[in-house]
């Protein structure tokens, strides 16, 4: 939102307090707001911290049903959908946009179902659809407390400790929220279509990540191992498509992003 405001782009930000997409009248209310030249950016979703069960999946599908009904009544010029890298099989170690989506949990399945539903909805009116699949996003003010940079920084500052599953052997990609914003702005500017993984391209183990945060914290931080709840899996991303599509984009180096996360978190 702030990025669009700085660019002087006219916009309307709608939260659940403004428009509850689970309500029966939601489609009509949204359609009344749409104009033919608009781009609709869909970020509305109940995230895993709100539930990973079938009821949560159904609520998420009901939200999208309202959006699709509104688009059918009032087609727009562009749709951008925020999905997740959870649509990929977590046992696949190297992922790019051509990797088959095969989620193993209901959260990933929900996003894949929404992707397919939007693809079908945008086909007949010929609305360009861009699906953005971010890896784990980190940044100050995160509300999900997800395992990784956000939680590690929070507990390092509040409790002087980081809890790590096993020895943190898993390799993952972590992307700064500022980079996701920049990529989204590029997608909006070019009215891009297709699938784009919003990732850094820099993979690191959780153990190395915890050690790096502990070193940057500027205070003694203990790293505590916890019993592992599942098998060790790794994931890295091939960023060739992003590099070809947006060659000027440069992701934030992880060390720089973590330092900024620590600085901003200490102010809160």
Structure write-up:
The chain is α/β, with parallel strands linked by helices and 268 residues long. Helix content is 40%, strand content 17%. The chain contains nine helices and eleven strands. The strands form four sheets. It has a four-stranded parallel β-sheet with strand order 1-2-4-8, with helices on both faces. Strands 5-7-9 form a three-stranded mixed β-sheet. It has a two-stranded parallel sheet with strand order 3-11. Strand 1, helix 3 and strand 2 form a beta-alpha-beta unit. Helix 5 packs across helix 9. The protein is globular. The model has no long low-confidence stretch (mean pLDDT 94).
Spell out the key features of this protein.
three-stranded mixed β-sheet; 268 residues; 40% helix; alpha/beta; globular; four-stranded parallel β-sheet
**Helix percentage range:** 25-40%
Major β-sheet strand ordering: 1-2-4-8
Query: What does the average pLDDT come to?
Result: 94
Q: What class would the helix/strand composition place it in?
A: alpha/beta
From the alpha carbons, calculate the radius of gyration and give it in angstroms: 19 Å
Which term fits the overall shape? globular
**Proportion of β residues?**
15-25%
The major sheet is characterized as:
4 strands, parallel
